[in-house]
Amino acid sequence: MSAALEIVLVSALPVVPAYIFGVYAIRFLLTPRSPRRHALFALYCAVLLGIKPVIDFYWQYTNDGRSLAILHGTVMALMLPVLLWYCFGGDWRRRLFVLFPYVCIQSVFIMPPIILLLQTGLPLRPVWQVMFLAASALACGLAVLITDRLARLVEKLPGPVYTALAAASPAVNLLFNLDQARQSLQGDSRLETAAILSWRVAELGLLLAAVFFWLLRRQAKQTVAIAAAREAMHQRAVETQQRSLTELRTLHAAHRENLEALDALLAEGSTQAALDKVRALTRQESQAARRYADNPVADVSLAEAARRCTEAGVALNIRGTLPRDCTLPPVDLASLLYNLLSNAVTAAAAGPRPGTVDVRFVTVAGRLCVTVENTMGPRPVRQQGPGHGFGQKILREIAARYDGSYTLEYGQGMAVATAMVCLPAKEETHG
Question: What is the pTM for the complete model shown?
């Protein structure tokens, strides 16, 4: 073993764990598919990251081995997205998206310690090695926290945008490594290349920071808009309930007047006139206030949908019912039904005649399933203006909150929306 290689190994081997953990930390952003695949990813990190400091330090100490370092970095950039896709589960978009943000953010934090480490010259003193290990652990922790937050924000973007960003992440990471290889070919030493690379990393870090704060601002606006939409929905529900109470009071007063009129006719001995009045009142029974469901929240929501259907000339059909003791919190139940029914009535009103809205309630095995099927035009109708545009988002959030699902399908002039939620236990509702 040559003296140069001995110095490189003595300096590099103590910092090998930091290099390995620098990429292995991505594991904390993802869920392994199986212990075997997790072990495969760990092996990849141990082998390729284990020899990286040896190659880098050898290049720095002897000004030789540059081509090997470039080849090593390119192989890592090509293999890493494949390993992330193969070894981890969940949405493939998250597995690929986290790659470049994590690498970039981790590099932002770790590049200054790397430059300081290279500037000290070889052999490295133990104190520098210990400081680098501590700095690497801190950089990895910060990168994981920030990348996880960024990924959660990006997941809330429209599906096509999220897919495009996920597909672009490994490609951008590869381009970044190829640019690093180009800089390496132009430089004389590993230190010079690292210094140039640090500026590129800083620029990308600023760009990611700008995207991060833009997404935070967008999320804040959406939160406010969704809250406004919920408030508007609640106000409509209150107005519908007040209108129903007014109708019931009017109906009660009319019944009392009719009973008084019947008493008067019977007192006068006008039996035939009293019978005719009873028959007339029976024919008017269909005009009386209707109860749509045993559950008061569902009754109000269905009553509002019935009013809108009547105004739009759309037929409303209801199958099944929602029991009064439904344990889904009233706020979430009202939001679920309002958005399902509002979207369906709007689409049916804009579609061909005869328009229909069919609602089906099924409660079984602690799960509530609400299916709304409606006629529609050739294209889905999107409601515009304040308080609109968040129905699908609200429905998905409610379904996810109660370990359920929400689907919307189009076909042959019909739209079918299905929301399924697990009903919480009574002690959970009241606790």
Answer: 0.56
